[in-house]
Amino acid sequence: QEKEGVLVTTAPIVVNEFENIGFELTAIVNNIAASGGEPVAVIVSAILPDKILESVVQRLSGEMERACHNLNLQIAGGNTQITKAVKVPVLNVTILGKKEKNLHKNFHTYEAGQDILLTKWAGMGGTIVLSKKEQERLEKRLPSYIVENGIALEKELSVLPESRIAMETGALGMHDVSRGGIFSALWELAEKGNVGIEVDLKKIPIRQETIEICEILGVNPYELYGAGAMLMVSDKGNQLLHELEKQQIPAAIIGKITEENGKVILNGEETRYLDRPKNDSLEPWLREEN
What is the side-by-side strand order in the sheet with 38-49? Predict the structure, then answer.
């Protein structure tokens, strides 16, 4: 439409398990939501192993169509290449979104004193992945319901509902939590806005399932893959919090924008500063063994 602009995001999906296609696609769509937009269509370029079975290709196509239907996305095109260069299917996904041009022209322009909110919980995406990948190991030490609750978080992976509420309530910026977890996302939010932040660690919402799973597997929950959670900045933090709660979306005010450029995390009497996220922020537990 005349008053709308186009948003584009792109990322690969390495298909080691068919069930993860919907999970990965939702995490990519969350990039559009973080910019205050609505996803519309997806273009898929598939790179397939040369010995792939036709039945596998059909299932791959079916899982992608199902995932797009759940996200109200139209498959607008793409292409397929068969090659010896890959051992598993790789889907290069480009998502097209739309956003009203005049809506929040100064998006991601922050000032000291504005509230920082987090929706849902830190480490959501990683909790889902670990609960699935390490289910047998975890259930030897944890009640099965804890692991099942971790897997069930996948139903709340999309951040589109809170993005819509935030835009209607006048949020000044958003940032979806992804690789590197909430600590990485906070650092990136501050860098994007060229501001400082002060966050209270104890106010960051986190599920008990995440804490227990991370303790067993030796993972820092605040650096755990965080897809499903959204950081928001607002000068009407309590109002935004109220609107989110009205729609039964958990959220909390966790800190504020500051005049200084420091990225400060408070934990009781202790003060620490966030480090620049590593270039390779893919957590070791997500790597595929050779």
Answer: 4-14, 90-100, 38-49, 74-83
Q: Token match 């979806």: residue?
A: 176
Rg of the chain on CA atoms, in Å: 19
pTM, rounded to two decimals: 0.85
Of 246, 245, 248, 271, give the one whose Cα is nearest residue 260. 271
How does 188-216 read in b/e, with b if 16+ C-beta sit within 10 Å?
bbbeebebbbbbbbeebebbebbebbbee
Beta bridge partners of 13: 91
CB atoms within 10 A of CB 2: 4
Which of 67-71, 104-108, 143-147 has the largest mean confidence? 143-147
What are the tens digits of pLDDT across the range 28-57? 999 999 988 899 999 999 999 998 999 999
Tell the burial category of 55 from Cβ atoms under 10 Å away from its Cβ (0-12, 13-18, 19+): exposed
